[in-house]
């Protein structure tokens, strides 16, 4: 973690690019805090549009349409193919109506993509740091929001309550969990390359704080995402020799001091805030009960006596029935039309609504994203691409558990991945050039 990157005088352009991208990538938690907790701005989609408009304005470069940077071409073609196909369906095969919000979503998606193509490669270190700082700040605002909410009590899902009438009660805990995952991942990818012991401690406790936020969100998809990330790391990086090297390095003076400070910090926290740990354990019990409910709903197997039908899981079971019905009808080719059915399973909805071509573009896009993510997790190019690779695993879970295939909650992160994941960076090219020059000199 390089604090000098926050110097406005020397890093102004990268900072404004990074703030704009971070606002688009993970802006909803901040929007909810400003709009619903602080009561600033209208409690409607108008404020969201203003927020994203400001983010895009911060990304406008001085060289607009004069200098473009090459993205991942395969992801760009597949992603654009799906977006243009759904845009066609929106205008011409649409029985749901042409809502202003849908038009706005496409405007922001294509505007964000165009501006991302103007962002230089050397923004990557600043962007990771800005994503971390903004998500950490939002974690703090979440705690403030639920403490100020008279209707929230321990045991409830943690989220910012919406202020507009008729809104979803209790807010959106999936946004809370997503922000916690972003903060946790960015802190972890920077932790390994941070030299200062106090900065390491700051990042480490940010990871624990973020993990606590994920736990109290009670979002089952995020729990599964954390498990997938851990599994991907151990499968691609774990070696028995790493255990012995880790034990040996732990006895170095600097590392021992770091471990001692962590243990002191944890002990102080448990003594002073022991009730917080009890609350987290209580949330874990609630999560276990909900998992039993999902298993009972999906399979009919009652593992515990208290297992009951889970409403959200039942909705997805019904959505699979809609998919099967489409699969054995003429709609299998062209689909039923834009937003014809809400399946809560984006991968299946891409076929039901947009036919086989929609499924091929959307599934193909996510398949290649998975390939690039696994490759990046294995080789670790730089903190930004490593973060994006792990974060895709959380989006991959959502492909089967919630949302729609054209949600901006998917496509804003997707566009950042199109721009930065799986391409050759300038720093790698520079190292290769230096290596070539050294070979020429010595030969």
UniProtKB/TrEMBL annotation:
Keywords, comma-separated and alphabetical: Membrane, Transmembrane, Transmembrane helix
The protein, known as: O-antigen ligase like membrane protein
Segments traversing the membrane: 15-34, 46-65, 71-91, 103-120, 126-147, 201-219, 225-244, 256-274, 351-372, 384-402, 408-426
Record organism: Dyadobacter psychrophilus
Superkingdom, natural source: Bacteria
The keyword DNA repair belongs to this UniProt entry's keyword annotation: no
């Amino acid at each position: 973690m390089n604090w000098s990157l926050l110097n406005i005088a020397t890093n102004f352009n990268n900072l404004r690019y990074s703030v704009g991208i971070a606002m688009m990538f993970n802006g909803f938690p901040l929007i909810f805090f400003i709009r619903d907790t602080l009561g600033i701005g209208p409690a409607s989609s108008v404020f969201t549009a203003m927020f994203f408009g400001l983010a895009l304005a911060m990304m406008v470069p001085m060289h607009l349409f004069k200098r473009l940077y090459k993205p991942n071409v395969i992801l760009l073609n597949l992603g654009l193919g799906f977006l243009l196909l759904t845009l066609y369906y929106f205008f011409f095969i649409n029985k749901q109506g042409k809502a202003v919000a849908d038009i706005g979503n496409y405007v922001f998606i294509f505007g964000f993509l165009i501006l991302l193509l103007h962002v230089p490669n050397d923004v990557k270190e600043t962007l990771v740091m800005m994503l971390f700082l903004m998500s950490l700040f939002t974690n703090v605002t979440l705690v403030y929001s639920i403490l100020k909410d008279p209707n929230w009590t321990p045991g409830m899902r943690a989220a910012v309550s919406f202020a507009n009438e008729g809104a979803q009660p209790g807010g959106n805990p999936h946004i809370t969990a997503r922000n916690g995952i972003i903060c946790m991942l960015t802190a972890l990818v920077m932790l390994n390359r941070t030299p200062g012991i106090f900065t390491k401690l700051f990042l480490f406790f940010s990871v624990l704080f973020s993990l606590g936020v994920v736990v109290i969100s009670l979002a089952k998809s995020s729990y599964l995402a954390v498990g997938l990330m851990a599994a991907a790391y151990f499968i691609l990086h774990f070696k028995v020799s790493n255990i012995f090297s880790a034990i040996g390095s732990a006895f170095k003076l600097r590392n021992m001091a770091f471990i001692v400070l962590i243990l002191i910090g944890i002990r102080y926290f448990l003594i002073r805030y022991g009730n917080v740990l009890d609350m987290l354990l209580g949330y874990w019990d609630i999560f276990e009960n909900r998992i039993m409910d999902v298993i009972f709903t999906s399979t009919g197997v009652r593992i515990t006596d208290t297992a009951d039908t889970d409403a959200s899981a039942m909705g997805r079971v019904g959505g699979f029935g809609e998919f099967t019905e489409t699969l054995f009808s003429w709609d299998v080719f062209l689909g039923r039309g834009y937003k014809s059915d809400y399946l809560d399973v984006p991968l299946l909805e891409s076929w039901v609504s947009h036919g086989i071509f929609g499924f091929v573009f959307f599934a193909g896009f996510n398949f290649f994203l998975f390939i690039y993510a696994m490759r990046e997790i294995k080789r670790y190019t730089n903190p930004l691409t490593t973060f994006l690779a792990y974060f895709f695993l959380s989006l991959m879970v959502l492909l089967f558990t919630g949302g729609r295939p054209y949600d901006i909650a998917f496509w804003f992160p997707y566009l950042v991945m199109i721009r930065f994941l799986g391409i050759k960076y300038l720093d790698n090219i520079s190292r290769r050039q230096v290596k070539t020059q050294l070979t020429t000199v010595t030969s």
